[in-house]
Amino acid sequence: MANWPDARVARRLRDSVSEAFHVDKEKVKCVAAPYRVCPVGAHVDHQGGLVSGFAINQGVLLAFFPTKEVNLISNNFEGAVWFSLDEIPDAKESKEEACWGDYARGAARALKASGYLMNRGITGMIEGPANMQGCGVSSSAALGCALLLALEEANNIKVSPMQNVMLDCYIENSYLGLKNGIMDPSIVLLAQKGHLVVVDCEKKAFQLVPRPDSMLPPPYRVLLVFSGVTAALTETDFNKRVEECQQAAKKLLEARGEPFPIESKLGALDASDFQLFQCKLSIGEQKRATHFFTECARVQSAVDHWGTGDWESLGKVMFESCESSIHNYECGTEPLIELISILKSYESVMGARFSGAGFRGCCLALVSSAHAQDVAADVLRRYRERYPEYRDAAFALVAEEADGARLVDLCDRYV
Predict the structure, then answer these.
(1) Which among 39, 172, 325, 366 has most CB atoms closer than 10 A?
(2) Are 317 and 270 in contact (CB under 8 A)?
(3) CA 353 centroid distance within chain
(4) Alpha-carbon gap, residue 297 to 27, rounded angstroms
(5) Is 378 a catalytic residue?
(6) Strand partners for 84
(7) Contact 406, 414 (CB under 8 A)
(8) Rounded CA gap, 288 and 75, in Å?
(9) Ranges of the chain with pLDDT below 70
(10) What is the dihedral of CA 170, 175, 178, 181, to 10 degrees?
(11) 45, 102, 168, 184: which one is catalytic?
(12) Does the pTM of the predicted model rise above 0.70?
């Protein structure tokens, strides 16, 4: 498998920055932040649950050099971003059309709010796959992480990967108002090719589970089928589901006779607490809690299967995860549910589930290597026939695993 990003792409982006801003090439650096997929562990990170995932060979590149202000353009996004570090606008106060600039402003705000000395901004150019924004592969987390790494490099700030996870959460939670958890930035930042990233979101601890050495190359490929359904998560029921989980946790803690914080989490409880006191919950809250506790158990099973190379069993757990997302967490639009149904019809598909929140984006599948490209083409054909309104926006991608976010040189060596 080839490394991502390709050194030629990094050089081209460096040259573009050099030409656009009239700066020597030697002064331009490059950050790569990959997108991620999550085979099992849906909708539990914001509740302190157990999640899993790995990075893929698609993502965000940011070529930059230090300057006094922040000045960014993009090959994929409209508009430009400029602001002073002395006056970082609030997200809702920004008047510019380039809403992607909220992630740049949020990254600068996160570092300053955490007490880091910020004397220098960055000037540069962002590039990523034009058709993968908002597709359920954590493009927003990749963008946020890339910007954090670039600002830290410009200011000589030393930050651990887990500290950067929390800084990215500041961008999404405090600055943008999205109630997600730490899964996305954790996988983006911690991934290593050939390993499954497993994160305990309550303890903020992680482990890297290697794929068996005998499984090289792996007998599966990662298939992503993009539905063409797009919507900002703040415009879906995403935040509502998080609130329902918090309400369930509050009632269970109260039933156990313990004080509860304003934003209670199901991760503070055991499955036995839920079994004992579930009668205190509404039907909807019971479903959300059922998904949480069973999904955490599925993640542990998935970790075991990954470690032994039992891909058939891992795929079965993926299917079970998706069923719980649909029926217990009650997410998934009709097109995405239909995509899962189509994927299930192929013997060579070991497992599949929504990638992302399930309200938009794509479906993820593990497919036997020998059939991946054929399945990708046939699934896309059938889906486009079923939903012609998404014909132009829908596409399929056979992806490979990749390493996590990092500063790269022009030969794509670690630095």
Answers:
(1) 39
(2) no
(3) 15
(4) 49
(5) no
(6) 87
(7) yes
(8) 40
(9) 1-2, 92-98, 231-236, 357, 410-415
(10) 0
(11) 184
(12) yes
